[in-house]
Design brief:
Blueprint lengths: L18 H16 L6 E5 L10 E6 L9 E13 L9 E7 H10 L3 E8 L6 E8 L1 H14 L3 E8 L5 H13 L3 H6 L7 E6 L13 E8 L2 E9 L3 E11 L2 E11 L3 E6 L3 E6 L4 E6 L5 H17 L12 E5 L5 H18 L13 H13 L17 E6 L5 E7 L2 E4 L3 H7 L2 E3 L25 E3 L8 H5 L6 H6 L12 H16 L2 H17 L4 H13 L6 H16 L3 H10 L3 H10 L2 H7 L3 H7 L2
Parallel strand pairs: 3-5, 15-16
Antiparallel strand pairs: 1-2, 2-3, 4-7, 5-6, 6-7, 8-9, 9-10, 11-12, 12-13, 13-14, 14-15, 17-18, 18-19, 20-21
Helix pairs in contact: 2-3, 6-7, 7-8, 12-13, 13-14, 14-16, 15-16, 16-17
């Protein structure tokens, strides 16, 4: 048996190239690129790097005939050479260290620089040019970064210069630098802008990367674009609502997409999150805690769909690759069933499926209590301080520190106080005259209403006697039901308390700036005025509401206020006179009238919305 021949591996020694030669080769490469058809570029590259921080420039012409009339501009350039042992033809980008002192010169010069880095393979001497446009705005931003970090240099990415692209690149450079004169950049510090423009340059469809490109921000003022700063996009967000089909049912689902350079994050209904690595095309998803019952149920159904089909049912959103689930979804169909049941029960007591639960809420305990009490009718679990359960009685029930309900007990069950059912079940009546109070015997027994009860009573909204701030504090409060309760079906607009109730809603608007209460007050006063067109107080209320809605009174309306003022003077109604001066926005006259009032009258008028308007105009 012969011996195995041992072959010694020979490593070829790389010849070290002198830096002068590297720089010469780099300049040669840039010259070769410049001197290409259609010969619109003329080289002014300095071979021995005698400039302070520049290596000459490139003259740009509009025609191959090199003469003054065809001259466009000159692009200042910097050329750096470096060696690299990897196959450079496969590299689309490289990083290169740039000195702060050079950046300071480029910015001070005010024309920016087209910076080239040429890599030279030390074995084959194959060269490849890379570039970066350093416009004034970006130079300013880079210098600010270096100052903040206390550094003398910064590593910047450079793009591969493709064949035949240099002329286009030079024209892009000229255009962007013309929009960023240094004196504009400095002057923009003292200006304020309401409109802005974002510009990307050097955009190539096949290689554009939103997170790598520099964006230039301009402030818009008097048809002038003022250069403000250069920026990099770190995060891109988009929100969308899409209709998807789950088991034959169409459902609106809202989601947000957040994209960074390396990752996608999809947040569905603010509850279900998908994290995807853009490079690996893999990730995970996890289900957050319940924010709203409706959103949580949608997310459970989406997870169930994904587990069955290995995809999501969206048309415009698809997640490629493998996604790992964080959580136990083995019994997801049972969970879906239980949440549907919970939503049905909550709906009965007025907790909307869109109600947002407090982050500190003990949700398992709350949900168990809701099912036990209102589905299984274990009313003994309620700690009711308002006596025993009686039909058509209103109860305030605190299910937790954060969930407070107002319910009506009727037909041996609780119903939502803020519902059509409650408006119909309870109803509201007030006596028209004292006659109504004498219809029944002098006992504690309820009055039996005669068939002609409408002659003695007026129907009114069941919420007309409720304090608005207390109602709004109830979890099951519904403004649309409040509004419904004042329609003709449930409320006689001619009832005197209509106007007093409207004043409460105006005052609520003054305190919380909620427009819908002002609109409701306007509706009540306008409908009342249609029945009593000569009522001056109602007219004052209507004009006051319009002023609060930022309308200007018409000349006809101002004349009407003056007529009301004359009638008030004739009737010696100082409070009405004060209101008219306020509506006419004559603060001095209004103040004199107010000062003439007695202390008691002042205290009274200060409770009305007209005084709040007087104080604030």
């Amino acid at each position: 048996m012969g011996r195995k021949k041992v072959t010694k591996k020979v490593t070829k020694k790389v010849t070290v190239i002198d830096t002068t030669i590297i720089e010469q080769l780099a300049c040669l490469e840039i010259n070769n690129i410049i001197l290409q058809p259609p010969f619109h570029l003329v080289s002014d590259v300095q071979w021995k790097d005698k400039g302070i921080s520049f290596d000459g420039g490139i003259e740009v012409y509009s025609h191959q005939k090199i003469e003054k009339t065809n001259f466009i501009n000159k692009v200042p350039i910097q050329v750096k050479g470096t060696t690299i042992q990897k196959t450079i033809l496969r590299k689309d980008k490289i990083s290169h260290q740039v000195q702060k002192k050079d950046l300071e010169v480029y910015y001070k010069y005010g024309q920016g620089v087209l910076y080239f880095v040429v890599t030279v393979n030390p074995i084959t001497y194959v060269r490849q040019a890379y570039y970066r446009i350093l416009a004034p705005l970006e130079l300013k931003g880079l210098l600010s970064q270096l100052d903040a970090r206390g550094k003398d240099s910064i590593s910047l990415p450079f793009k591969k210069l493709e064949k035949g692209y240099l002329e286009t690149l030079c024209k892009i450079f000229i255009e962007v630098v013309e929009k960023q004169p240094k004196h504009f950049i400095e002057a923009s510090k003292e200006k304020e802008f309401t409109h802005y423009k974002l510009n990307f340059i050097d955009v190539k469809k096949d290689s554009f990367n939103l997170f790598e490109e520099t964006a230039y921000i301009y402030g818009l003022s008097d048809n002038t674009e003022m250069p403000l700063e250069a920026a990099k996009v770190e995060e891109l967000r988009m929100g969308k609502t899409e209709v998807v089909c789950l088991n034959g049912e169409e459902i609106n689902i809202t989601y947000q997409i957040t994209e960074t350079e390396k990752k996608y994050k999809f947040i569905i209904e603010n509850t279900l999150t998908f994290d995807v690595d853009k490079t690996k095309k893999s990730g995970n998803f996890h289900l957050g805690k319940v924010r709203t019952l409706g959103s949580y149920l949608k997310c459970l159904r989406l997870i169930n769909y994904y587990m069955e089909h290995n995809k999501l049912p969206f048309h415009s959103l698809q997640l490629g690759g493998k996604l790992e689930e964080k959580g136990n979804f083995g019994e997801i169909e049972e969970e879906i069933k239980s949440y549907k049941e919970l939503i049905d029960v909550c709906c009965q007591i007025g907790i909307s499926e869109n109600y947002v639960f407090n982050d500190e809420e003990d949700l398992p305990s709350l949900f168990n209590a809701i099912i036990d009490i209102f589905k299984n009718k274990q009313y003994g679990l309620l700690n009711i301080h308002q006596g025993r359960l009686e039909d058509t009685k209103i109860f305030d029930i605190e299910l937790s520190e954060y969930v407070k309900l107002r319910l009506v007990y009727a037909d041996e069950k609780f119903i939502n106080f803020y519902s059509e059912e409650a408006c119909t079940t309870i109803g509201g009546l007030i006596p028209k005259t004292d006659i109504a109070n004498n219809l029944g015997p002098d006992t504690d027994m309820p009055v039996v209403l005669p068939d002609n009860w409408e002659d003695y009573y007026q129907k009114v909204s069941i919420y007309s006697s409720q304090k608005i701030e207390e109602m709004v504090g109830d979890t099951n409060f519904d403004f649309e039901i409040l509004k419904l309760s004042f329609t003709d079906e449930y409320h006689d607009i001619q009832a005197d308390l209509t106007i007093n109730v409207s004043l409460k809603y105006i005052s609520y608007y003054d305190k919380f700036d909620d427009e819908k209460y002002l609109e409701l007050a306007l509706d009540l006063n306008q409908r009342y005025s249609a029945k009593f067109p000569k009522d001056d107080i109602v007219k004052v209320n209507i004009y006051l509401i319009k002023l609060k809605q930022h309308y200007e009174l018409s000349d006809a309306e101002k004349d009407d206020v003056l007529d009301i003022q004359e009638r008030a003077e004739s009737g010696k109604n100082q409070r009405l006179r004060f209101a008219c001066e306020v509506l006419l926005q004559s603060k001095g006259k209004a103040q004199r009238i107010f000062n003439s009032l007695s202390d008691e009258e002042k205290e009274t008028i200060m409770e009305f919305p007209i005084y709040h308007f007087y104080e604030n105009f």
